[in-house]
Amino acid sequence: ISAEEAIVASASTDVVFVDLRDVREIKREGKIPGAFHCPRGLLEFWIDPESPYHNAIFAEDKRFVFYCNLGWRSALAADIAQQMGLKKVCHVDGGFDAWKKAGGVVESK
Q1: Which residue blocks in the chain are alpha helix, DSSP H?
Q2: 29-52, pLDDT tens digit by residue?
């Protein structure tokens, strides 16, 4: 979805924004308010309900909006998440950079 669509979606309680960036990126640049942090390297472990590292947030009936800095990691993550069975998944085209350029609110970390 576009950054503008993501900004509109951020008002919904049925949407979970998933920040895939490294913790250093978040500390340096901030994040989308209320976003759930899932380091990209742990995504598959946290999605898989059979994994000992499964995170219950991925079992919720929500729309998951993935984002990273420029949209490359999140595009791949959204594809993998769909392959793993998440039904309502998308990513922010252009990532956090596009979010900021579109006037999206940024939460300092």
Answers
A1: 3-9, 23-29, 43-47, 72-83, 95-101
A2: 999 999 999 999 999 999 999 999
